[in-house]
Amino acid sequence: MSGTNMNGRSRRLTINEDAQAMIDIAQREGIETVWDRLAAQQPQCGYCALGLSCRNCAMGPCRIDPFGEGPQKGVCGADADVIVARNLGRTIAGGSSSHSDHGRDILETFSSLTHGEATCYQIADEEKLRRLAAEVGVATEGRTAEDVGADLADILLEDYGTRRGSLSFVGRVPEVRRAKWDSLGITPRGVDRENVEMLHRTHMGVDNDYVNTLLHALRTGLSDGWGGSMIATELSDVMFGTPTPVTSEVNLGVLRTDQVNIAMHGHNPMLSDVVVAAAQDPELVELARSLGATGINVVGLCCTGNELLMRRGVPMAGNHLMQELVLITGALEAMVVDYQCIMPSIVDVAKCYHTKIISTSDKAKFTGATHVSFDPKRGAEIAHRIVRMAIEAYPDRNHDRVRIPTKPVRMMGGFSVEAILGALGGTPKPLVDAIAAGTIRGAVAVVGCNNPKLPQDLEHIELTRRLIENDILVLVTGCAAVANGKAGQMLPEAAAMAGPGLRSVCEALGIPPVLHMGSCVDNSRVVALAAVLADFLGVDIDQLPLAGAAPEWYSEKAVAIGSYVVASGITTVLGVQPAIFGSPHVVDLLAGGLDDVVGAKFVVEPDPAEAALWIRRHIETKRRGLGLPFVEIETASATEPAAGVPVGTGSAT
Questions:
Q1: Which of 272, 319, 424, 524 could pair with 264 in a Cys bridge, judged by C-beta atoms 3.0 to 4.6 Å apart?
Q2: For residue range 290-318, what is the model confidence (pLDDT) as tens digits?
Q3: pLDDT tens digits, residue range 547-586?
Q4: What is the C-alpha to C-alpha distance for residues 470 and 227, in angstroms, rounded to an integer?
């Protein structure tokens, strides 16, 4: 294939020049990537895409014919509604379990820290520790931070069990929203309890009412957003520091041709934080120099990269679809992984180079990788061992195959809830005033993954661009944040891309129009900030001019996030069609009926221009409901959508 044709193919797959260059090299050298494997899977199963296949028991696997000509019930008698609801419920349980187990790992390490067992960690934000402790009823006066922390850990560990009527952080939710949850029976009681019950309900012969199943699916998601993920976020702040604005760099240009490059990939900051510290050890730096390198360069991938960028200013090499491509630069000595969103294929790609793949979590081993079992109680020792392994790989680098295709782009991260309120003078009032005046029309959380079915990052960037130019503040997390960073939308000077109102606010505060709030577990910051705004105004969250969007989502975690965001009262737009369209009843419930009970719903719209238009109409509707100035949106399709009906080319209509 000619270089021109290859370049044309890569431009269809991603909007990023660094990714395009690596895709071209991969194809030229016969290295298989995620896009090649997606093409080989075509056509993908239509039954599965509609949610109409079931393999929950050995009487199956079963499928429902969407055209009504074949089977309309599984062997057990489950119809399309039941099968689709079961599948969605299990998907949400999978995502909720993943984030919440991340939270459990953080919590258990925090508990060990308070008992003097995990000595490589420390309490970095004692003020936040004491504030959290007081929030959940732990005495703080006259007590050491370790004693306070030990009691806090015990209370939060109970949030994973079944002894509570509700989770500790549910107290942050506006009272009117809590009453709504109670009336629906979806107040989250315990992280493990809701996930186990979701699996129980979707076993054959248990819950065969799709509405009942999906209500518990919302409860399961809420146990993640206000439980496991929130615990992960809050205790990570206590242990590693609450993020404040920091400037760093992003894209493959952050790799160094003359240094030992180590990429931290995954989600949990426990490992990555101590590796960054080890990479600064003078003894290890001198070892790297003795082998011909000028130093050690740690970079991030995916959400552990977001954690490091937010707190340490560590540069970010890329998001989900970049993990194979960073290997193809030939400049990486080691990719160190923990868990979640890590493709097994990285082991195969690394075999084409000198790069070591080092797995570290006993719950996430990769065949062919070098496994170094990470124990937080020996964190510093293990981190030094890992960095040494990377340094010792440097002499094996083939410098003729090193290809770093671009210069890095600057970006700003570190906008925790505390940082945002701090910039506003410690109170949400300036933000509320700006929204009330119409200077800022509203806010949207653009979050989630990359999906190879879409051109990488295009949906994130285009949706964000259209929102900020219409004076809508954008909050980003996870892979979406990396996309916006690469596009230059996350610097104070990016205020020039915004509408006049949002621009004036950003210039006055010295902030970007797109605020990086962290990793994907940190979507809990988004709902926590929404709760603060709602409490300040004395309204429910669903009355605020807010929306969520996951334009390029792929993972079960994203579905769990969407469920708790919607259940919290924030309508969410999805850019990739979920596997629910085999049941019109389930579609009607999620895209309409939920609005009547939780005040929010899902919308499916893959076109970022149409998604932005829908969100603008939605925000203006919420503003009108609060009696705020209304802006008529002058487009041919700007009429208000019918209640409960998702709009756009990718919707259920």
A1: 272
A2: 999 999 999 999 999 999 999 999 999 99
A3: 999 999 999 999 999 999 999 999 999 999 999 999 999 9
A4: 34
CA dist 112 and 378 (Å) reads: 12
Q: Report the distance separating Cα 538 and Cα 509, nearest Å.
A: 26
State CA 57 to chain mean position distance.
32
CATH dotted code for 411-625: 3.40.50.2030
Pair of tokens at residue 478:
């996870």
Q: Where in the chain is the domain with CATH 3.40.50.2030?
A: 252-401, 411-625
Cα 484 to Cα 462: distance, rounded to the nearest angstrom: 10
Is 490:514 a contact under the CB 8 Å cutoff? yes
The CATH-assigned architecture of domain 79-240 is Up-down Bundle (1.20)
Count Cβ atoms below 10 Å from residue 125 Cβ, excluding itself. Answer: 18
Between the alpha carbon of residue 445 and those of residues 324, 484, 515, 536, 574, the distances in Å are 27, 12, 9, 20, 12
CA 501, CA 503: separation in Å to the nearest integer? 5
Tokens for 17? 């020049």
CATH of domain 252-401: 3.40.50.2030
For the chain, residues classed under CATH 1.20.1270.30 are 79-240
Separation in Å, CA 612 to CA 329, 473, 506, 542, 587: 35, 13, 21, 19, 21
